[in-house]
Amino acid sequence: MSQKEPDSQIGYLHSEDTYPELIIECDSRSLCTDEAVGKDLWKKAKYQKRPSFNLVGETEDEQRTYGKSDIDRIWVAVDGMGGDYAPGTILEGCLRAVELLPLKIRFVAEPELFDLAVQELRLEDKLQRALSNGLIELIPSGISIAMSEEPTMVRRKCRASINIAMDLVRIGRATSMYSAGNSGAVMASAIFRLGRLVGIDRPAIGALFPTKDPNQQVLVLDVGANTDCKPSYLHQFALLGNIYSQYVLQVEQPRIGLINIGEEDCKGNELCLKTYPLLMAENRFNFVGNCEGRDVLSGNFDVVICDGFTGNVMLKFLESVGSVLLEVLRAELPRGRRGKVGSAFLQRNLVRIKKRLDHAEHGGALLLGINGISVIGHGSSKALSVVSALRLAYSAAHHNVMSDLKKLSTAIVN
């Protein structure tokens, strides 16, 4: 059956003609408060199982259709309803990402809101082209989880976009998932649907911070998943961060530091004092000592460990630094004709500074410690942040970081 041309009633997520083979599994044991909505929505989609599913080139027919270069693309599931500007800007970022990165996207969203966003942002042509080329597939969801709702709502709204995207990873339809939605809900959904790695008590959110070395980043974790931590949690964060730094960031022997108010091992609160000897006694990574706040971006550390409360404060502070610095530079540049000439000479430098400090350039944080790859984006994510986060998801999947994390999990248990 031929595809219909988009019109005022786009209906991308409603039409079987546009997307005839929606593939999804929903846990029937979950409680749904949107059951009636879910049934009405999901009966519009045609379900069918594929006997064999290969994440890099599915079937021979698809390989011939997509071409050799497309065979190397990997599937990423995207929570299209997550974020302050969803679903429009999330879709816009995804459309850019499939042009820049070797990936394909399964985009999960509420049909009516999705259709409105496509029309408002005039994305019809770009979307239709991506759909025709097999770079994006659309999957309908039920009522999504709002930023203000409790994380436990993932148990009641089983057809929420976060849950469906997570399920795509669980059943092998995607190598990783991305969401800029409710971070607590993303973590809860990941734990309920993917599960924790054996031996890991608490997953941690790891964010990449820039350093004074333009070629180096520092991985900081936890930045928000666990506001209250035990020393054993921080020890596990160090093990997880060491693996990620080695195999994804390609750091041969990551230097691991513990956030503290001083370099001496006798300083700090009770958590730091009890964690320090655990890290010092560990021979599976290179612990180099305490890291003061001024040293986080120094380039002297590759991984920095802290509780989620401290990490989140640092993350939010860093997000403000780039914009404040650029505003200060603009205010201090000379005005008038001489100022314009000077600004023209400095333009490239300002762009480079912004690129290094702008949090949109580092648009996602990896949820480490779960049995799958999940990237959490900023709630205020726009298109550039989405592209950056999807680049992170691709990098983690491409470097097969889960294989190494599972080996670590086995070693912890043994």
Automatic annotation (TrEMBL):
GO biological process terms on file: fatty acid biosynthetic process; phospholipid biosynthetic process
Gene Ontology molecular function: phosphate:acyl-[acyl carrier protein] acyltransferase activity
GO cellular component: cytoplasm
Protein name per Swiss-Prot or TrEMBL: phosphate acyltransferase
Gene (UniProt): plsX
Reaction catalyzed: a fatty acyl-[ACP] + phosphate = an acyl phosphate + holo-[ACP]
InterPro entries associated with the record: FA_synthesis, Phospholipid_synth_PlsX-like
Top-level enzyme category: transferase
Main subcellular localisation: cytoplasm
Keyword Plastid: yes
Annotated Pfam families: FA_synthesis
Species assigned in the record: Paulinella micropora
